[in-house]
């Protein structure tokens, strides 16, 4: 299945009043660009992350990939949680995802590996953001976040908040 995205400024994306109705948007929650602007990462409500590239050359397109994350078995049922947060570390080139399961993971896009999964937060993750110097990660969580559940295995008691985590070696790619 080939996906397509229309990248434009919001003002330019608004249709004229007499245009036909637009189809529903894809189930993409976040779209962030890889620096330098060689590609982008998308997340979905289906617990997936995709790393894609703009260059149409076949050797570059062969590097794109997708993976499943933010899933766990709850009472014998494989449960899929939406990926509700995405942030790039501006220094190390890694990225973090947060999910409706209340977990945050740091990924190395070049190695295609998870570097670290932090202990579960008290509620589903709402948003993530690295500091400009890449040394801190702000993690927002909310018990009212759509698609999340405080009944996830090991989940806390809910609540709302923003925690700041200091980023050490877990946010750096591994040496090759």
Describe the structure.
The chain is mainly beta and 176 residues long. It has one domain (26-171): YVTN repeat-like/Quinoprotein amine dehydrogenase (Methylamine Dehydrogenase, Chain H, 7 Propeller). 5% of the residues lie in helices and 41% in strands. It contains 2 helices and 13 strands, in the order αβββαββββββββββ. The chain has helices at 10-13, 58-61; strands spanning 28-34, 39-44, 48-53, 65-68, 71-74, 77-80, 83-88, 95-99, 104-108, 113-117, 125-130, 136-142, 160-166. The strands form 4 sheets. Strands 1-2-3-4 form a 4-stranded antiparallel sheet, with no helix packed on it. Strands 7-8-9-10 form a 4-stranded antiparallel sheet, with no helix packed on it. A 3-stranded antiparallel sheet has the order 11-12-13, with no helix packed on it. Strand 1 (28-34) and strand 2 (39-44) form a beta hairpin. It is globular.
